[in-house]
Structures are given as C-alpha cells and as structure tokens.
Design brief:
TIM Barrel, 2 domains, alpha/beta, 14 helices, eight-stranded mixed β-sheet, about 450 residues, Urease, subunit C, domain 1
C-alpha cells in the first residue's frame, strides 16, 4: 500500500485541497479530500490524472526530423510517406524495441500514462511473416513493459495500396495481411499482452484506402468487443479518391456502411463537412486528433469547435511522434483553431471557462473511451495513473486550480512535469524516467545505424 498526499488535486468532481490518495495493487483504493498529511504520506503539490496518447506509430519516433529536406516537387504527406516507407523497411525487431522503449519513456515524462499503439509494422523486411507472426507486436509489448506505460495494442489490418482493392505499394510489404493472416496475428497478439499489467487490445483497419468493404466486415468481429480505430479523411487527396471510388467521402462512407459507435475512434477526420461532423458526433465515436502530426504533415485543421458544439468527444494522440507532450498536443489543437477562426480561447466552451481545463477534460474522457478504459481519473477503482506538476515552475507560480492547467499547457509545457505513476509505480521523478539513460543509449545505437 502507498499513501500519497497532494496539496491540490483534480478529482472527477473538480479541484480539491489536501487530498490523500491510497494506492493498493496498482489501483486507487481511497481518495479523501480535506485532510492533513499523515505520517508516512508521500507529499506533493499538484496532482492530475494521466492522459492517454490514443494514436501512436512507435517506429516513426526513429525518423523524427529526417523528412524536413524539401525535394524538387511539392512536398506533401504523400512524399513524406516515401521517407517513412524507406525507414520502416530497414528496421529489425530489436530496432523497433529500442525505438519504442525510448518513445514510451518520453511519453511518461511528458504526462502520458497509456498509449494506443496503432501497430502495422508486422513482417520481415521482405514482407514474409516471422516464425512468430506476432514478433513485432511482442517487441511493442516488451517496450511497454520496460517503460511501465499502459498499452492498448491495436494491430492494424492493411491489405491494399488504395481504394477499391488496388495492389499494395512495394514499400508497404511489411504491413500487408490477408484476412486469415490477420486473424492469426490477432490471436497471437492477444497472447503477447495476456500477462502485461494494464494492457488490452483492439483492432485497427488502417483506412478505407487499405481495406475493402468485405475485408472490413470480416475483421471487425476480431475486435471481440474491444476498440476499433481507423484513419479517415486525413488528406484532401484521400477524400477525392474516396469520392471517385464510392461517391462518398471517407467519414460519410463509414457512417453509412460501418457499425460506428462508442467503440470506434476515427483518427484525424480532418476534412469533414458540417453534415458529417453532426452525424459523427451522434455516434459516440471519438475523434482521434493528433495536432502536431497534422501540422507537421500539412494535413489541415479538424473542425473541432463545430464537433464539440454537436456533442462530440475527442482524445489526442502523438501519431508520428515527431514531438511528444500532453501540453504540446493540447496547445497545438487550440492554436490551430485560433488560426482558423482568428479568435482566442476557441475551445474553452463558454465565457469565463478555462481553455486548458476544457481541453484536458475532453482528452481524458476521449482517450479513456477510445482505449476502452472504464475507470480513469483520481477516483477509487481507477488505475493509479497520476501526474504531479512542479509548483515552483515560474509559469505556475501563484496559480491555483484551472489556472495551473492553463499555465502548464500554454506556458510551461513538459518542463512542469515532476512525478508520474502508472499502475501505482512511480517511474518519473524530478521530470526524469528511471530508464531514460539506458533507453536513450539503446535508441541512439539503433537509430545511428539506421540513419547512417
């Protein structure tokens, strides 16, 4: 049993002062506000629940910054993708483990306590399956176990190069599965995470570019009630190609032809009409927004204000992992809306409301729904995933309650993170993960060789 005492803590009911939290077997057993610290309590200033990065491609952390040299033609998502393919084709299972371990260490240091790993780098470099079809999934689980982050594994089904069942690109050969091979991969992946604390599993049909309607119908039951994630309408070209194939836009097609409900997460959904936004919000599905990656790739800006006004729920993901941070993702999301609407505090939800608090609350609830977490937050029965902030950081000085969150998200950033617990284990202290140095050395060795 561990007893923690916080001068201030954000509970499901709101902010409370002098809060004692009792942790037993990785979960929160009791929360008592308004009490003085007792002998043996570990004392901290400001506590928040940890958030989920609901969308990550871990291997791409290794190529962060490597696609910033402009070519001869217009540089777009589609040209960036060629760089990504080349990098993916070179990685060994050991490389994936090394890259993912550092990534997950960085996520924890920045306030993410769970990751939804949209995992599609399945096979050997020639495209043939490993002797253990879940070899790469096992390396993701290994990285999660080493770092201590909670894992929602989302094996991705990827079969085609474009709409209508087009043949895959050679650069995609490590991703490609038939329905039968994917069923075997899912069965093996379930075994991989079976003994990993806090882990669960869903499925991720990659996109309507990569999955035919018949294949989508065949694989959805493999989720077995778990989450279903899919990329949708990230790029204008994707929307145009989907219209040419089906007469429908990607989000429109999914809403008309797939059983989209609260288990689903539509990643990006950047280019959606007003009608799509309203219908999407009514399904209970989560919008998986990855604002830093969407800005990095020139995707566009999701109509977040309209989606929230329609009752929609969003979570945030780190996607290409070019930059990691809870504060960074939430700040970029709001700043994108400010640039689009030429206003301030666009997503605050109303006059006198804190924008940072509104963003944080949505990301907490949306990440939990998208990754099938029924109990989150600083409440009895929830997993003990806790983040403390450094009250002495200059951007938090003199602030209380929601103003602390605003100071963290819009001024301090990750430098304000002090300690992080996942499943009741304190893994980050003084802003530093206990595995940081070892993880960095292994990452540098692997990526140094890949880049060379």
């Amino acid at each position: 049993m561990t007893r923690l005492h916080f001068a201030s803590a954000l509970l499901p009911s709101g902010w409370a002062n002098d809060v004692q939290v009792v942790v037993t077997a990785g979960a929160i057993a009791a929360v008592t506000p308004g009490v003085a610290p007792a002998a043996g309590d570990e004392r901290h200033a400001i506590a928040l629940p940890g958030l989920a990065s609901l969308h990550s491609h871990a291997f791409q952390r290794g190529m962060a910054g490597l696609a910033e040299l402009r070519g001869d033609s217009t540089d777009t998502f589609w040209t960036w993708r060629e760089t990504m393919y080349r990098f993916a084709l070179a990685m060994t299972p050991d490389d994936v483990a090394s890259v993912a371990t550092l990534l997950y260490v960085e996520m924890l240091e920045q306030g993410f306590t769970r990751v939804g790993e949209f995992h599609y780098l399945h096979h050997d470099r020639d495209g043939s399956p490993y002797a253990d079809i879940a070899e790469m999934a096992a390396r993701i689980a290994q990285a999660a176990d080493a770092s201590g982050i909670a894992l929602t594994l989302l094996p991705s089904f990827y079969a085609h190069g474009s709409f209508g069942g087009a043949a895959p690109h050679d650069g995609q050969r490590r991703f490609i599965c038939s329905v039968d091979r994917f069923a075997a991969l899912m069965a093996a992946s379930r075994k991989v995470i079976a003994n990993l604390p806090g882990a669960n599993i869903g499925i991720a049909p990659h996109s309507l570019r990569a999955v035919t309607p018949d294949e989508l119908r065949a694989i959805i039951p493999l989720a077995d009630g778990g989450p279903v994630h899919i990329h949708a309408a990230e790029q204008v070209k994707e929307v145009e190609d989907c219209l040419a194939w089906s007469g429908r836009r990607p989000v429109q097609w999914l809403l008309e032809h797939a059983p989209v409900d609260h288990r689903w997460c539509l990643i990006h959904a950047t280019h959606t009409t007003d009608e799509e936004v309203a219908a999407f919000a009514k399904t209970g599905a989560v919008a998986g927004l990855c604002s830093i990656t969407e800005a990095s790739l020139g995707d566009g800006i999701f109509p977040a204000r309209a989606f929230l006004d329609a009752g929609g729920l969003f979570g945030v993901g780190t996607d290409s992992n070019v930059l990691i941070g809870v504060a960074d993702e939430l700040r970029q999301l709001e700043y994108g809306q400010r640039l689009k609407h030429r206003q301030r505090n666009v997503l605050s939800g109303g006059a006198g409301r804190s924008t940072g608090r509104t963003l944080f609350d949505h990301a907490l609830a949306g990440g939990a729904r998208a990754l099938a977490q029924t109990a989150v937050g600083l409440a009895p029965g929830a997993r003990a995933d806790i983040v403390t902030l450094d009250a002495a950081h200059p951007s938090l000085a003199g602030r209380t309650h929601d103003a602390v969150i605003d100071g963290w998200i819009f001024a301090a950033g990750g430098a304000a993170i002090d300690c992080v617990w996942t499943g009741g284990q304190k893994l980050v202290e003084g802003g530093r993960h206990k595995l940081r140095q070892v993880a960095r050395e292994r990452f540098n060795t692997a990526v140094g060789r890949l880049v060379a």
